[in-house]
Each structure stands twice: as structure tokens, then as C-alpha cells.
Amino acid sequence: MRLIRLALLPALAGLVLLPAAAAGAPKRIVSIEWENTENLLALGIKPVGIADAETMSTWTPIVPPKATDVGSRIAPNIERIASLEPDLIVVTTRGGAPPFVRQLRQIAKTLVLDQYAGKRTDGSLYDAMIRGLRRTAAAVGRRARGETVIRSLESTYAKLRKRIKRKGRAGDRVVFSYPWGAPGRPMVQLATDNGMPATVLRRLGLRNPWHGQRGRYGFTRISPEGLVKVQKADWVLFPLAREFREEFGQVTSQPFFNRLDFVKRGRFRTLAGNTWPYGGPLSAKVLAQRVAGAITR
Question: In principle, which of 35, 44, 189, 261 could form an S-S bond with 231, CB 3.0–4.6 Å?
Fold first, then answer.
């Protein structure tokens, strides 16, 4: 846990010296999605209510502050949110406004962000993330802080690019995979060019050799045997979330897996299970740091 907090310090450093939020900016804010919570924390704001706060640090590298639990991200507790008397609620769509948005708007001003590039099914999730951060910063009167967070992220990429180049790894072909499926039916997801992991790879001077069909979530879902299509990659990275350890074992224990070229070359790496490919700028920064660490150690 200490390492996770340390990983987030660069993103938050320096923000305290910036001008205070604009007069009249909302003070009591409720967040209905992890990315929104992340954006608010990066902007120096502690939400009074957070959805799915208990499991946030399991899947993301963010340790949320203590706040009122307002239910799940897909079915928030409307009554509990109203009891907090917020002056702003931030919610994320997944290609369409959630059915509860109308109820939220009856409680307070509601900022609706589109994490998945609107009606498009192949839009850039990274670009949508940056837009969401900027819209949130504008809504809370902290535009300057938002731009500082973005500059800090770009600075991290630049430093890591130099490190990767020094180690002779610039231009390496890196596959970012992510677990899926259920016990007895494991699947593997490979990052496509429109996903946040693939964009982070490009920012680090690396290449994504997987060119599967783009999807709304930035991944192509394949059977484990499909990994043969990327076996010539320089690296295959795999966040190992504890919820998918059984499925992971079912994949890696199969005879075909140890015959894959990237396994025989020792180029298969697991990342911490809370390496989150759908988050905000802090998740992107931690993802970049972990990718660079995996291929340069």
C-alpha cells in the first residue's frame, strides 16, 4: 500500500502552490465512477461521496479517502446521495447516459462525462480521459490544476522514454493483455490501438504489435490459444488481479503456453493486479511506470 501511495505522489506534487479554486466553485462533490474519483483527487478535491470505494484499490492503484459510500457505480444509492446535499455530482457514461442521471439531476448539478468516446465504438479512450479531466477541472474551478496534472503526466512519459532508450528497449513491441472469463472458461484481452494502454505504450516510445479490431473498451477478447498470434512480441505484460488468479493458472498451466516464443525467451511479465487500463491520469502514470519497470529490470 505504501508503494501505491508513493507512486501517486509525483502526480500530486506541486499542486498545493497553485491558486485556490475559483470563487463559487462546488465544495460538496459526489463521484459515481472510479475515473471521476481519480480526477477529483488529482485536482486536490476530496469527494464527500464515492461509489464502489471499498473495491477501488483492488482494481486501481488509487487508495480513495474516507467518504460516504453511495452504492455501486452502476446502481448508486439515490437517497444516500441526496442526504449528502451535494452541489455537484460527477458521473460517467458508457456510450449512453445511465438511467439514474435524471434522478441525480433532481438532486444537484450533474456533470456527465463520456469515458468511451461517445457513440463511436473505436474512439480513443485516452483522449476521452484527458477531455474528462479538463471538463472536471472546469466544473470545479481548477483549470490550472488540471493542466498541471497533464503536464506532470507528459513529464513522466519523457523521463521513462529516456530510461527505456538507455536500456536499449526503445521501439520494442509490447503486448498489454488483461484477464477475462470465468473459472473453466478463461479468456485473454489484448489492448487495441484505441485503448489507454496502447496510447501509453506509444508515449513511452514502444509499439503495440496487436492490431485486432478496435472495441469500445480498447481491447480484443480472444481465447488463450490466440496468444500464438503475438508470440513474436518482445514483451507480453499481464496485470494479475487476484480475482483472476484461477483463470490465469488455467492459461499458464496448459502445455501450449510454455511453447509460446515469448515465454521461452523469458519475455512474459506479470504486473500488479491493480494496474488499471480504464482510469484517469494517475492510473495512466502508474501504468507507464510499471510497464517501463517490467521491460527494463
Answer: 261
